[in-house]
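wait is this the right file?? whatever heres the structure
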């Protein structure tokens, strides 16, 4: 870690170079943090979202552990948490997308020891992508390859201009790459979406499609990739765009040297869900008969990609896994957290760096509130507020080191800015694991 101590007006400022921002899946690792005591006063090169993430981070002035709202020692919290998990008949462990890979790994172990349902926030964003990848595979690349080679960039149901502000400048559109010396001028940007987003406004070609018609539109392209004849009237009716528009896009796709498709929740969370993603992944595979083409999801949380990877390494499935029988069973819709809670099945839960009380449906929230559960979060949230045991933990990337996976599955080491008085997720989870392991064996 590179830390300097220059004299700066108003007190000593430490500089942390090449820090990684974990606010979104871009995980920009070129941030220069200026730190005064327990405060980051400047985050050079961070976008507006990253700057807010770093500069608004303050050490929470609350105990590291609350049991039923009352301050307690971390040891007491760990003891109570272990009891909650081991005494439950159907525990649920959920979250994991905003913590380090090291902590995710321990959470999976706990799930295994106590025989719980294990789910990540993927189930409410790119879960369908995980299912599609398991179904048809993926043709992929790093973002570095896109930066250096990608001359046709397609965003499908994704709006990185607002959700991942540095995606354009660091990876996909603006950079001058090894084979694209003129940067943006050497690239063509196409956006397919149901509305004219901020991203669509920057595109060379915007194709607005009928809402919920992504599946049909991708299959039109699959047919055109194979030079099949299509009924023009049917194409217009089912996609909202004339056949000529899709033929023009296919011409551009075949003519590209290196095409990259980035897709978002506009594709994965609309009608068709995993079938949409499967179709897009299959289209990408088809395109490789003509030219090099890759496809990547634009992931939201800083380490949601790591969560998928860790859960898949350990169980064979990326999310929505049930370990109650001592072996993993995968069934999104049955073992995904919002469904398990909505049906009133879980009788205890552990929520790691997620806020289901703020974004699950009412039935799920009501059930969660009615059962004993543990919450780990750096900040006070609706979920920590209702938790039986609430741990205030150090923030990953800002206070604790570790590994996160960028949206293209590239591991990035974190360079924290300052220490927190609170324990890390990893420390709490390790303590819980140590406690639940002997009680199970
Ligand atoms: S694009 Fe994402 S990772 Fe990069 S600085 Fe902005 S919020 Fe942080």
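ok assuming it is, sequence goes like this
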């Amino acid at each position: 870690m590179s830390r300097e101590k220059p004299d700066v007006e108003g007190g000593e400022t430490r500089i942390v170079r090449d820090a990684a921002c974990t606010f979104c899946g871009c995980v920009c690792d070129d941030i220069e943090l200026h730190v005064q005591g327990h405060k980051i006063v400047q985050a050079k090169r961070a976008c507006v979202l990253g700057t807010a993430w770093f500069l608004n981070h303050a050490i929470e002035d609350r105990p590291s552990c609350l049991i039923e709202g009352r301050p307690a020692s971390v040891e007491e919290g760990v003891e109570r948490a272990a009891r909650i998990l081991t005494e439950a008949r159907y525990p649920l462990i959920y979250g994991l997308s905003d913590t380090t890979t090291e902590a995710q790994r321990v959470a999976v172990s706990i799930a295994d020891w106590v025989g719980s349902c294990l789910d990540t926030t993927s189930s409410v964003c790119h879960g369908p992508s995980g299912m599609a990848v398991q179904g048809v595979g993926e043709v992929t690349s790093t973002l570095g390859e896109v930066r250096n080679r990608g001359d046709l960039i397609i965003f499908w149901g994704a709006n990185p201009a607002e959700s991942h502000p540095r995606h354009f400048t660091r990876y996909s559109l603006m950079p001058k790459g090894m084979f694209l010396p003129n940067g943006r001028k050497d690239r063509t940007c196409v956006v397919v979406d149901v509305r004219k987003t901020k991203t669509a406004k920057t595109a060379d070609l915007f194709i607005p499609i009928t809402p919920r018609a992504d599946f049909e539109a991708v299959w039109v392209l699959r047919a055109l990739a194979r030079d099949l004849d299509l009924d023009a009237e049917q194409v217009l009716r089912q996609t909202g765009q004339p056949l000529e528009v899709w033929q023009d896009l296919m011409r551009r796709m075949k003519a590209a040297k290196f095409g990259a498709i980035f897709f978002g929740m506009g594709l994965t969370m609309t009608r068709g869900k995993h079938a949409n993603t499967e179709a897009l992944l299959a289209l990408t595979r088809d395109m490789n008969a003509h030219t090099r083409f890759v496809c990547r999801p634009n992931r939201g949380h800083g380490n949601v990609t790591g969560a998928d990877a860790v859960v898949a390494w350990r169980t064979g499935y990326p999310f929505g896994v049930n370990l109650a029988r001592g072996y993993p069973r995968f069934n999104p819709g049955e073992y995904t957290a919002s469904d398990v809670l909505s049906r009133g099945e879980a009788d205890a839960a552990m929520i790691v760096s997620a806020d289901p009380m703020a974004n699950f449906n009412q039935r799920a929230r009501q059930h969660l509130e009615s059962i004993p559960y543990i919450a780990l979060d750096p900040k006070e949230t609706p979920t920590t507020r209702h938790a039986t045991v609430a741990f205030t933990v150090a923030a990953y990337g800002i206070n604790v080191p570790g590994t996160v996976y960028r949206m293209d599955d590239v591991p990035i080491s974190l360079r924290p800015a300052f220490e927190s008085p609170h324990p890390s997720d990893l420390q709490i989870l390790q303590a819980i694991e140590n406690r639940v392991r002997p009680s199970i064996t």
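The longest strand covers residues 14-19. so i think its the right one actually
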